[in-house]
Each structure stands twice: as structure tokens, then as C-alpha cells.
Amino acid sequence: MAENSDLRADRAGAVLTLTIDRPERRNAITWEVIAGLREHLARAKSDPTVRVVVLAGAGDRAFCAGADLAGMAPRDPGGSTDEYADHHLARGWLAELFEEMWHLGKPTIARVQGWAMAGGFGLALACDIVVASEQARFGAPELNVGLWPYMVTVPMLRSMPPKKALELMLTSRVVGAEEGERIGFVTRLVPHDRLDAEVAALAAVLASKPPGVMRLGRESFYAVVDAAATEALPYLHAMLTVTSQTAEAAEGIAAFIEKRPPSWQSASGDDSDPH
Fold first, then answer.
1. Sign of the Cα pseudo-torsion (206, 209, 215, 216, in order)
2. Would the pLDDT of 77 be above 60?
3. Catalytically active residues, by annotation
4. Which pLDDT value is given to residue 271?
5. Cys-Cys link to 58, which of 21, 149, 187, 231 (CB 3.0-4.6 A)?
């Protein structure tokens, strides 16, 4: 993997933490940051020893302030000489990143300690769980610079009532962490000095779950989150039958009957103990 000084990857047992490391720019994202996140996620997806991914921003001011508008000049993602088309394709990288996060097969946590704005707001909401410090601030201010949070619309709609998402996009107003929890897109609101401890504790709980069923269940959630009940229920019915035939289900039921802790096995057959 190519070195990326703007992105750090740290492992602690089964937990991989990806940190955007541009505190002087409030961790604004660049093409290189997006590419680095996608590359690390691809590796995590195929690595059975990674059970949980945490996304974070360096420093105390911002999770991610969105796109670095000054630094994201047009670039060529596919060899075309058409600069306009190249820039259009490159902008799609953020949408592809969201999709790759949802199809990761492993739970994701956003650790939000400060500003999460525009694309950074979308990046946080694309995670399964948002743990926010009381100092966190969120917003979709694109309209203020003559743009619109087009791709961010999808994670917003998956995280809050549609009319509330529209109101935030129309007004560009900043939302505090307490209101974010009330609206529903902040999963856990914690004291600022407890943020790292709470994220670590949550990641440990998620890492302790059966990885195979976690993958199937999480994929099922994202498969039906936008579907009508008449489409979702037959699919979920079938997935229950599939899951009930797995070794993890057999182990979980046996452990329950025998009144002992279950011993989960990874997809590769290795012991699931991350330590």
C-alpha cells in the first residue's frame, strides 16, 4: 500500500482505526484520503482478523470538515483526457466509498469529537454507529457555497427522518451533538473526556460477536433498509433459514443450552479471540 501521510491506520487486537490526519485543515478530505480509505477498507474486508473498523479525525477540533475545496483540483481517475469527465468520475469516489462501507461485512464506528461537516457529515453517517462527544457539531452547509449535498443525501436519509434531512440541507444550519441524538443520527452521546474509552468499549463488544452472522445480519439490514415491507420480509425469512444452518448458530444455541460462553470461529476457521 502506498504511503499516505494524511491517513493513519492503527490496529488494536481485532479493531482497525483509520484516522484522517490533517488537523491543520480540520481533516478535510482529498482525493488521496478517499483513495486511502477505500484501499484500507478493501484490505479489512478480506482480513478475518479485523472485526471492527473505527473512523476518526486527528486533533480535537474536527472529525472531518468535508472536501478540501482548495486542494481537490480535477484529476484523472481513469486515463481520460477529458478534464470535466475526469472530475465527474473522481467525485463519484465518495459515493463508492459509502457503498464500500455498507458492504464491508464488518461493523463501523464513527468517533466524532468536533466538526463533521458536508462530506465529513456523510462519512460519519455512512458508519453503522456514530459515537459523538458533547462537543461534536454536524451540518450540511453546501448550499452556502452554491452546491448541494447530493451524495450525502443517502446516508442522511438512512439516519434521520426525510423532512429533517431536507431542513438541514435547506438551511445549512449546524446541529449540536445533543440535537443529533434527539434527531436520531447520533447513536451515542458521551462526555468529551470519555470519547475514546466509550468507542473502545463499544468496539470490543462488537468484536466479541460471531463474525459470520454479524456479516449476514449487517448485509441483510442494508439490503432492506430502503425496501418495502413486502419485498423485505420474504428476503429476511430466507436469511433466517440460511443463518440457522451456520456453525455459529449451532454453537450459540449449544452454548445457551449448556450455560457456557460461546466460542466463535472466524471465517477462516481461526479462533475468534482477538487477543
1. negative
2. no
3. 142
4. 43
5. 21
Amino acid in the structure at residue 209: K
> 240 lies in which domain range?
211-258
All three cell numbers of 62, joined, read 474536527
Question: How many other β-carbons are positioned within 10 Å of the β-carbon of residue 70?
Answer: 9
User: Which H helix or E strand runs over 39?
Assistant: helix 31-46
pLDDT tens column, 10-37 = 999 999 999 999 999 999 999 999 999 9
Looking at residue 36, which CATH number applies to its domain?
3.90.226.10
Q: Are residues 153 and 216 in the same domain?
A: no
- pLDDT higher than 90, residue 202: yes
Domain boundary among 207, 223, 239: 207
Q: Are 39 and 9 in contact (CB under 8 A)?
A: no
What gap in Å lies between CA 21 and CA 33, rounded to an integer?
Answer: 9
275: cell is: 487477543
| Sign of the alpha-carbon dihedral angle for 71, 77, 83, 84 | negative
In sequence order, what are the residues at sequence separation of 6 or more whose Cβ sits closer than 8 angstroms to the Cβ of residue 247?
Answer: 212, 265
For 241-275, how does the pLDDT look when each residue is reduced to its tens digit (9 = 90+)?
999 999 999 999 999 999 999 998 743 344 444 33
Cα distance between residue 46 and residue 208, in whole Å: 18
Q: Same domain for 194 and 217?
A: no
Question: What per-residue confidence (pLDDT) applies to 199?
Answer: 98
Specify whether 102 is located in the same domain as 199: yes
Terminal CA-to-CA distance of the chain, rounded, Å? Answer: 25
Same domain as 181, residue 53: yes
Is 60 exceeded by the pLDDT of residue 189?
Answer: yes
Are residues 61 and 73 in contact, defined by beta-carbon separation less than 8 angstroms? no
* Cβ contact 108:101 at 8 Å: yes
Burial class (CB in 10 A: 0-12, 13-18, 19+), 65: buried
